[in-house]
Structure prediction request, 250 residues.
Amino acid sequence: MPKFCANLTWLFTELPFPERIAAAKEAGFDGVEVLFPYDVNAQDIVNELVRHEVAMVLINCPPPNYTGGPQGFAAVPGLEDRFRKDFRRALRYAKTLGAQHLHIMAGVAEGPAAKETFLNNLRWAATEAPKQSLTIEPINNDTMPGYFLNDFGLGREIVTTVNAPNLRLQFDAFHAARITGDVAGTWDAMRDITAHIQVAQMPDRGEPDRGEIDYPAFFDLLDRQGYAGWVSGEYEPRKTTDVGLDWILG
Prediction:
């Protein structure tokens, strides 16, 4: 079976955040990801990671705007200075937490100017943080209307054009199903540029077990191909988290 991690923004939410790391470890996860950890003291998170011998796999950039602003804006023309400021803050968190990947969110934008802005910001970020793994993620427009990076072909074009050794794709199987309807085929086309995988079932975005996506077959495929990265459970539990974890047992 692949190496699984738990997205603590979605899982174990019945517990206070500091307790979710211990719960994830007890459930069999050796890694976790947190989309926006910025309202929690970074050292407190580190202490829990060390105590329970859990790896921090991924966090998102930029930090969230709690006043109704955009969740991401790396592709938004005119916000380049803000992107750089917030990227540096996110990078400090990533370094403190030992996060393997830092996911850069494109934001809501469209057109040639947005594409050029995204490329320029990613080139700058890859140079600013050459030792930090950076990812970009295609997200379907039903989940996030107007999101610039809403196509896997565009994701490949962006990664290839930037051509930085520390920039790769984040492959979310749920979004692949929404965008292309063909998870296995999309994975085959993207796996050479992919650094991280996230999973949830269709159509309810619940546990990656029963449903439209054949996850046992997908996990077997990853094993046969020798995929060595993490596979994160980023889903909304149908009940409490602990009663829906059979999918990680194989």
Notes: The chain has a mean pLDDT of 95. Helices lie at 17-27, 42-52, 80-97, 112-128, 152-162, 173-180, 183-190, 215-225. The CA atoms of residues 9 and 53 lie 19 Å apart. The first helix runs from residue 17 to 27.
